[in-house]
Amino acid sequence: MNDPATKTLSKVPAVTLGFWIIKIAATTLGETGGDWVTMSLNLGYLAGSAVFLLVFMAAVAAQISAKKFHPYLYWFTILATTTLGTTLADFCDRSLGAGYFTGMSALFALLLLSLALWYWRAGTVAVETVDSPRIEKYYWVTILFSQTLGTALGDFMADGDLRGLGLGYEWSALIFIAALAVVAALWLGTRLSRAGLFWAAFILTRPLGATLGDFLDKPLSMGGLNLSRFYATLALLVFIVICIRVFPQKPGAHLSRQGHSA
Fold this sequence. Notes:
Radius of gyration: 18 Å
Largest sheet: none
């Protein structure tokens, strides 16, 4: 691995409260936006996944080719992963008939594999090391798997179909909020791996966003508010843009200043 002293600034934002607020809004938009394309526009899960895969590939290519951190480009790429994660999870769980638990288990295995490969190549999975094209590829593949896993996990908790637990959107959201609170407490009160806790929180914000998105746009008969998917997506997009302007957007701390833990 390269000498940390020679590394450039991270190409991902510093992990602050603003980061997590925008991340949750982005994951909620991923659910409403993905459902709008696949359900409201009747493209279906396969065609919707194909569309979002192209957007994701273009966004990642632009992000990797960028020489420094660009807030709007970074968050657009995150949005591409959340929408693609939504449609991919729905395609596997519903169209292919895998069911939530099977799909969730397979995605969890893929996520662990991507993290293991990243660690094997770089010696760490800390986001502060995302400063080269090689590491960025691992980073975005890991994020895509985490977003897709989060969608399946959220559906598994909230939905009673396809062998889900059927807890409903409100209870599922409260459970994920409580889990995030536990991770935050561990971050503040223990010396556990910073990288491990970051990825735990990153994964948990996705099912929280998925359940919030479903709560907004699902029919009243399914426990949702039956809001327009298009307008909910547009409102979330405006909110994200405002947050990017309001909350400071700076690249993550240099590895040599902060060190790293796997």
